[in-house]
Amino acid sequence: MTPKYQPADSMKSPRFAGVRTFARLPHVTTLESVDLAIIGVPFDTGGTYRVGARFGPESIRSASALLRPYNPALEVDVFDSISCIDFGDLDVVPGYLPEAHAQITEAAQPLFAADVVPIFLGGDHSVSLPLLRAAAAQHGPLALVHFDSHSDLWHGYYGGKDTHGTPFRRAVEEGLVDVDHSIQVGLRGSVYDAADARMTTEVGMELITGPELHAVGMAAATERIRARVEGAATYVTFDIDFVDPAFAPGTGTPEVGGFTGYESLQLVRGLRGLDIRSFDLVEVMPMYDPTGVTSLLAANLAHEFMALTALRS
Hints:
The chain is an alpha/beta fold. It has helices at residues 56-63, 78-81, 97-113, 128-139, 167-173, 194-197, 199-202, 210-216, 218-229, 261-269, 293-311, and strands spanning 36-41, 70-71, 76-77, 84-89, 117-122, 143-147, 183-187, 206-209, 234-239, 276-282.
């Protein structure tokens, strides 16, 4: 049976034409007969250094026009396997983090209730907290696979509790994350003190630092990720600053010593077969990348997320 929703045929309509939806999918706001939805979360009030991730979803969608249906690395025709839509953006309240987070959680809950696999395009990393609240309300505590150069486990900033550097501290405190089956991958760069470097293991998650990942390689790291989360309902979050700024300069808190686009794709493809209930991809800031390579990589990573979902259909 052919999935209900399909992208525009780029052999009939050129990629530079039409309204910019992700991969030229139809913009649909109902969830009947939908397996997977792309959703923008254009919120960046949680940023503590550079801001501008509110423009990430728009830029990623524009870059995604180049994507084609078949993924040869994973050997799957995404749109022939599952019914996919671009749901549009969630409403947010710019400048007001608690209000926006509550709004994001409320708007995301119907997606999980409908058993749709959502791919959220941020936005800063603070949006992972309200999204995890919505996901856990449906699925219970989730294993977390977190690709990033920062742990985002800080206790707070400037007397406040919530920024893009704190979402997973709050998520652990609220019981949204199954720490025994969670892992953070790629952490690197300077921190405030030695205690910061221990935060991941102190909350009970496994850690593969950036230097360790370079040392052991992508294949060995993939095996560790799979061993940690196998069998658990999983939430995947990918901060684009996991990638070295030479390959993804358009982000808010760049850290040198990171990873190539190809290495990032390898790691995501290594998640094949895991029980992934949701993805998010955050911290793309197009104004810091006039070449557009950051958004292009982000669009391709999201396409890999789609392929992983199609393989499980």
